[in-house]
Design goal:
Elements lengths: L3 H14 L5 H12 L4 H13 L14 H7 L16 H4 L7 H10 L12 H15 L8
Helix pairs in contact: 1-2, 1-3, 3-4
The chain binds zinc ion.
The site of zinc ion has 7 residues, from helix 6.
Length: about 140
């Protein structure tokens, strides 16, 4: 999720790389289409798109192009992420420490015990009931 400051910095960087792309248009584009992404991911993809001679406008970033593969390569300096330690294709396709399959296993292992309801607060209920009686012009009850 991009902050306003991050959007402005990314727009300034892209504007430095491509002075023909107006700063305000870049801000608008980034907020509208990429605000949900991580700062670094947008920085990598935007730089890739901005420095490619075939690029006409920053909107090219919205296509499923090799710039998103460049983003995937940011997991480690080797260009590939370290996969989850657990055996199985479902786990090995997720990065270690952020494994969707591990999270799914955790959720499946949940015992489904419902969260206990909070203990009733008779005084609060009586007070609330009396407010309703008062509003309706009915006599107020003193006992809880
Ligand atoms: Zn896993």
């Amino acid at each position: 999720m991009l902050t306003r400051t991050e959007v402005e910095r990314l727009a300034a960087a892209a504007n430095a790389l491509r002075p023909d792309w107006p700063l305000q248009s870049l801000c608008t584009f980034l907020v509208r289409d990429h605000a949900h992404r991580a700062y670094r991911d947008v920085a990598v993809a935007l730089t890739w798109v901005a420095t490619d001679p075939k690029t006409q406008t920053p909107k090219r970033m919205n296509e499923l192009g090799p710039w998103w593969q460049a983003v995937a390569g940011t997991e480690t300096s080797s260009g590939r992420y370290t996969p989850c330690d657990i055996e199985g294709d479902a786990h090995r396709s997720y990065p270690k420490g952020r494994c969707g399959a591990c999270r799914a296993d955790e959720l499946a292992a949940d015992d489904h015990t419902p969260t206990p309801a909070p203990a009733p607060i008779p005084a609060a209920y009586a007070g609330g009931a009396n407010l309703v009686r008062q509003a309706a012009g009915l006599p107020i009850k003193e006992h809880a």
